[in-house]
């Protein structure tokens, strides 16, 4: 019997295991996702992207394909901006979609994507909605932030001192009444006109080298703090840089997306990982 097909890909070093599963037959438990993403006993990744036909998991979409996204700890999240780019890259590379524009279904709703000839991908990310303010505490130090909904929850803190100095190894604290389902935490510096530097601690993962929804939230928050709601910005993250636009009711994310490997999971490993 053959093993279970997987691919490995990344978008600005936010890395994913892709599981092509058109009919949604795989039993993708929390334990299996966590084992796959484990960098010692599994393949290692920030998350899993299961590639299923729209409707196979009962999720509505006008597109042909649905991204079933899971965080490294096995939890389900509504949306992953870097994941959608890598997902789209896979569909095109595998001949399941044509280069150009098509729609990917996600739990946050349909996301139109454009796969460009230079291999970069633009995602129409929908609205980035400012929902209030809150506080996060990193290593005993409180930071006030702007809460932003990009389909998933974010809290963005603008710092005067360099974000490079933050120690994000431990889970920062946050207000669980404001974010009962957890939150992604972004820390940003302004780098002059039209550019930000960002570090991120992702819900269900820990610090990652990039977070697409986080960069959109960061740009929306930075513009909000500057008294506007429209503009474009380059966001520098540990894994590279992306381009973001925000306007009232809409946003886009553009950046690279790569598939780096294809292989088969061992059936016995998969069976053991489920228990
Ligand atoms: N890395 C992602 C976001 C993944 C989901 C997030 N950890 C959450 O739980 O909301 C991105 O590129 O947007």
UniProtKB/TrEMBL annotation:
<feature type="binding site">
    <location>
        <position position="184"/>
    </location>
    <ligand>
        <name>substrate</name>
    </ligand>
</feature>
<feature type="binding site">
    <location>
        <begin position="212"/>
        <end position="213"/>
    </location>
    <ligand>
        <name>substrate</name>
    </ligand>
</feature>
<comment type="subunit">
    <text>Homodimer.</text>
</comment>
<comment type="pathway">
    <text>Amino-acid biosynthesis; L-lysine biosynthesis via DAP pathway; DL-2,6-diaminopimelate from LL-2,6-diaminopimelate: step 1/1.</text>
</comment>
<feature type="binding site">
    <location>
        <position position="14"/>
    </location>
    <ligand>
        <name>substrate</name>
    </ligand>
</feature>
<feature type="active site">
    <location>
        <position position="80"/>
    </location>
</feature>
<feature type="active site" description="Proton donor">
    <location>
        <position position="80"/>
    </location>
</feature>
<feature type="binding site">
    <location>
        <begin position="81"/>
        <end position="82"/>
    </location>
    <ligand>
        <name>substrate</name>
    </ligand>
</feature>
<keyword id="KW-0413">Isomerase</keyword>
<dbReference type="InterPro" id="IPR001653">
    <property type="entry name" value="DAP_epimerase_DapF"/>
</dbReference>
<feature type="active site" description="Proton acceptor">
    <location>
        <position position="211"/>
    </location>
</feature>
<feature type="binding site">
    <location>
        <begin position="202"/>
        <end position="203"/>
    </location>
    <ligand>
        <name>substrate</name>
    </ligand>
</feature>
<comment type="similarity">
    <text>Belongs to the diaminopimelate epimerase family.</text>
</comment>
<dbReference type="Pfam" id="PF01678">
    <property type="entry name" value="DAP_epimerase"/>
</dbReference>
<keyword id="KW-0963">Cytoplasm</keyword>
<feature type="site" description="Could be important to modulate the pK values of the two catalytic cysteine residues">
    <location>
        <position position="202"/>
    </location>
</feature>
<keyword id="KW-0457">Lysine biosynthesis</keyword>
<keyword id="KW-0028">Amino-acid biosynthesis</keyword>
<protein>
    <recommendedName>
        <fullName>Diaminopimelate epimerase</fullName>
        <ecNumber>5.1.1.7</ecNumber>
    </recommendedName>
</protein>
<feature type="binding site">
    <location>
        <position position="71"/>
    </location>
    <ligand>
        <name>substrate</name>
    </ligand>
</feature>
<feature type="site" description="Could be important to modulate the pK values of the two catalytic cysteine residues">
    <location>
        <position position="154"/>
    </location>
</feature>
<feature type="binding site">
    <location>
        <position position="152"/>
    </location>
    <ligand>
        <name>substrate</name>
    </ligand>
</feature>
<comment type="function">
    <text>Catalyzes the stereoinversion of LL-2,6-diaminopimelate (L,L-DAP) to meso-diaminopimelate (meso-DAP), a precursor of L-lysine and an essential component of the bacterial peptidoglycan.</text>
</comment>
<dbReference type="GO" id="GO:0008837">
    <property type="term" value="F:diaminopimelate epimerase activity"/>
</dbReference>
<dbReference type="InterPro" id="IPR018510">
    <property type="entry name" value="DAP_epimerase_AS"/>
</dbReference>
